Amino acid sequence: MEIINRRQRMASLSKKIRRENKTVGFVPTMGALHEGHLSLIVEARQMCDVVIVSIFVNPAQFNEKEDFNKYPRDLTADAAILANYQVNYIFAPEAQEIYGENFSTYVYVENLTETLEGASRPGHFRGVATVVTILFNTIRPDFAFFGQKDAQQVAVIQRLTTDLGFDTEIVVAPTIREETGLAMSSRNARLSAEERQRAAVIFQSLRQAKIAYRGGERNASRLAEIVRQTIEAEPLARIDYVSAVDAATLAPIERIAENPVLIAVAARFGNVRLIDNIILNKKQ
Ligand code: AMP
Fold first, then answer.
1. The domain containing residue 219 runs over which residues?
2. Which side of the chain, N or C, has fewer Cβ within a 10 Å radius?
């Protein structure tokens, strides 16, 4: 395993790998690796000849300076973990390597980026779309792996990949959870022990909605209301949003019919903001 800091070296290595007719799997991360990230890496390892993991805390996607500054960073620890997962390369550039002097070109994905997370975090998806474009252009992966936990990010990346014609297949992997059901996140470490226990209510609320859906409830606002009421019963939680939207277009819906529906939640516990979601579709 090699750690690469320079974009040009990453690009030429990746080009060489592709020339050898090997498939490149790419897993973009911000580090502070947990089992959620590792599940993507295991999948990439199974599907691809060469696995590249990027570790880059992308300043452009943080709208709160404090959140960016507090984001956990430990490349040595992350590299030690990745060495056990047969990762071939870690791409860990400095911010100046990605956003050089006079950087002025941003990627903005219309329609999908102003609601849900985008409404609470202005500019977030512009930062995500821009860095993913730069990383895809550098690495040109055959497959790129993303977690369902960030459902809106998945919708944005799929749109971006289609619209800009990247020759990369997007693979989406299920959300990995702690034993309580809380979705794994690097931010969970900032919860107190009590908050971490109580934050399991988010998953419980989504499960309640799924049970109601299975029981025949097809009214999207009523399902969202079940989620809202379950979380509101937990005094440590402050809801940011609960929304039921079309999983691909993220447009609000009223009745669940053919298309998969995303129920997405963001809630704060103390000063930590957590997100989670489920997809409801006919198969369930
Ligand atoms: P991040 O380091 O938070 O930018 O996440 C990197 C990738 O890991 C993204 O595609 C996330 O969606 C994915 N990811 C983060 N947490 C989880 C989780 N609990 N389960 C599955 N994937 C996750």
1. 186-279
2. C
Average pLDDT over residues 158-169: 98
Rounded to whole angstroms, how far apart are CA atoms 219 and 55? Answer: 41
Query: Is 124 a catalytic site residue?
Result: no
CATH number at residue 242: 3.30.1300.10
Residue 24 confidence (pLDDT) above 70: yes
Q: What is the count of structural domains for the chain? A: 2
Clarify whether residues 107 and 158 are in a common domain. yes
Backbone angles phi, psi at 100, to 5 degrees: -75, 180
Any idea which of 65-74, 86-95, 136-145 has the lowest mean pLDDT?
Answer: 65-74
User: What separation in Å is there between the alpha carbon of 76 and the centre of ligand 1?
Assistant: 19
Residues 158, 203: one domain? no
Catalytic residue among 4, 27, 37, 142: 37
CB neighbourhood size of 255 (10 A): 9
Distance 117 CA to ligand 1 centre (A): 15
CA distance 244 to 220: 6
Residue whose tokens read 């590249």: 52
Q: In this predicted model, what pLDDT tens digit does every residue of 189-248 receive, in sequence order?
A: 999 999 999 999 999 999 999 999 999 999 999 999 999 999 999 999 999 999 999 999
Phi/psi region, residue 81 (left: phi>0; alpha: psi -120 to 50; beta: rest), is alpha
Distances (CA, A) of 157 to 47, 131, 145, 146, 186: 20, 11, 10, 9, 21
Q: Is 54 in the pocket of ligand 1 (CB under 6 A)?
A: no
* Residues 210 and 234 reside in one and the same domain: yes
Q: Is the CB of 127 under 6 A from ligand 1?
A: no
Query: What's the whole-model pTM score?
Result: 0.97
